[in-house]
Specification:
This protein has 530 residues and is of the alpha/beta class. The protein has 22 helices and 17 strands. Bound molecules: adenosine-5'-diphosphate.
Length: 530
Amino acid sequence: AESEDAALAARMQALLARVFGHARFRGPQAEIVAHVARGGDALVLMPTGGGKSLCYQLPALLREGVGVVISPLIALMEDQVAALRENGVAAAALHSGIAPEEAESIERATREGRVKLLYCAPERLQTRRFLELLDALAAQGAIALFAIDEAHCVWQWGHDFRPDYLHLAMLPARYPRVPRIALTATADAAAREEIAARLALHEARRFITSFDRPNLFYAAERKRGDGRAQLLAFLRRQPEGGGIVYCLSRGKTEKLARWLNERGIPALPYHAGLTHEVRERHQRRFLAEDGLVMTATIAFGMGIDKPDVRFVAHLDLPRSLEGYYQETGRAGRDGEPAQAHLLWSGEDAVWHRHMIETSDMLPEQKEMAHRRLDTLVDMVAGTGCRRQAILAYFGETVGPCGRCDRCLAPVRPWEATDAARKALSTVYRTGQRYGAAHLIDVLRGHATEAVVRRGHDRVSTYGLGVDLPVETWQAVFDELLLRGRLSIDFERHRALMLTPRARPLLRGEEPFFLALPRATPKGSARGATA
Ligand code: ADP
């Protein structure tokens, strides 16, 4: 067995160099390749850019027959096939974009053993025609392996859920002798178990790589206004290279691209509402040109292999920590320093909650979506190391990283319980009908025409907040919105309203902490009853 191991290792090394042009395996790649090449099942959890493709491509080359790769996206398949062919590997893809005659010729080539890696969409494994082809191959022992790429698509609560992935659970019963390898960059502990269960990968060996992206610098800042000025300042600090700015809406990506171009920063929009040609053209330019900014919705990214993306910025709060991690993971895949810069507002979080509540999701799906949002809110509102918070979500424990805004400029948790209660109480006493600007006028005892006309100079919290500057009150309101203690009535002049989660805070049963820069003077909301 030892000489067998040595022979396998030698063959692996030779193929790695000859076909892929790499000098050595990265991380757990060698172990995974050897395990699958010997016929074992594997569940591979590896961050984006970790080098997952090689983990199934190389064993397919080492084994008899064709490696069948299930992949959710045509663009992803096409990229992989093109790269493999360039390296001299007989690869092909079967998907809805392939003309019937071409599909037929690919099937024939596969039957005749002239295809080494065959990519296909999950739907294809439910067509009789394709299953008959696989059956014929399996009978001759001519299927090298099944690779299930982007395996999190089987996770029903995930945002990339594809019902067709559920049918892949039939593979081990129908093809018991063919090893399977499932790969994903997405995996909190719960998702991990569900993926293994749904794909019937009970015996599969698990390969879990650290999700840390040491070359990414994480930062998050509260938006002032629409955040554009802060974004511009951030972009101007990026000396070279292109990047992505994620926005929540299609319209916003287009307006932002125009606005950036007017300020001398070349930018292109990308979203699912653009025609195929425009998307294609913008994507090509982004890949080819240096220093281009893609203003995009989350439609942009999966399967984009541009190793030198220097930054990923978010002009709006994403939906979950998982999504945020995926999106920022597109920066710095070449291992060189890159920036992940998040701009957030409380209103973004309120908007997500509103979208969840008004969606047609089932109650438990809504519950899940709220929880997913809260994982991100906790990271953003937290006072500690960002990387620590992100990796904790993936079940990893690390020390403070020294490469995030919190580590570079530590904040002092400020107990803002009194300020928060005054803010909530002012919302309540003025009838839950006003925005933050007016409420801050009331709190700071600012007798504006509107305050006097509405009699708000007579509410009991009038002037109670004079000791704190407007900026601080804005931060308090924003954090209350972010953390779901306040909501916004989008139908009624965007008035601030209390939520059920505000109750414990109002009753004084719960403390409220804010992150303030350590340098700020010891101004406190306590004893403000002047
Ligand atoms: P993933 O699918 O995990 O996001 P890929 O398989 O696309 O990652 O690989 C990411 C990049 O890393 C690719 O450019 C690939 O060529 C490169 N890569 C993979 N394995 C190695 C290796 N052993 N040595 C050097 N580069 C590698």
